[in-house]
Amino acid sequence: MPLTLHHMGFSQSERIIWLAEELGIDYKYVSHKRDPIFAPQSIKDLHPAGTAPVMEDDPSPVTDARVVLAESGAITDYIVAVHGNGRLAPTPKDGASYPNFLEWYHFANGSLQPTFLRLLMARSADPSSPFVARTLDKAMNQLDMLDARLAQTGAYLAGKELTVADIMIFFTLTTMRGFCPVDFDTEKHKHILAYLKRVSERPAYQKAMKICEGDDFKPLIGPKAELWPLMKKV
Ligand SMILES: N[C@@H](CCC(=O)N[C@@H](CS)C(=O)NCC(=O)O)C(=O)O
Question: GST N-terminal domain spans which residues (predicted)?
Fold first, then answer.
């Protein structure tokens, strides 16, 4: 089994385990514990980025040598292309779902996730700073856009089928909210809330989250977001 996927508890690497489960591909799973909330030495030893996820493919069918990647988007694109026969990633042949797919795929880690991270940092530095309110406004604007998109499709981000855009955004809408609580409005964000329920019922997602966080884990799919217990200790 050449593919090894490294997960660090309560982190963006849940996406990669879920991706592998949706694709039904073989992989070796390695779990890493946060130290106490940051990446442990075992993650830093794998890649200079020192962040999760990390993927090792040894030997890679592309290079015939060991490939190590540490960036969610890069790992996702590599796995889909090299081990997934291009599944879950629309192409120009798929017509209208292609530009929609591209926009929402990149929105997930290029806009929404950085906004939540900025909010987390701003609140930690000074919860009363005007920067917190401004960043929260930005988050709400992005969530309104997302809700409107999900009202349009009634299913997934690119259209009627799950794509890696959904796999990329789901962490920010769920696990990330345990680091940076953002409540969803039951009226204004009703399509997001319906989407969270729909996606969280997928067997591959449920299996991945059990692998990553254990049998008792409950994803943050409701309107109220609360800090994970590990954050309360910081
Ligand atoms: N842009 C990277 C970000 C990776 C990242 O920051 N991962 C976090 C976990 S959610 C991490 O490893 N944090 C621990 C640390 O920075 O020490 C990606 O999408 O993979």
Answer: 1-87
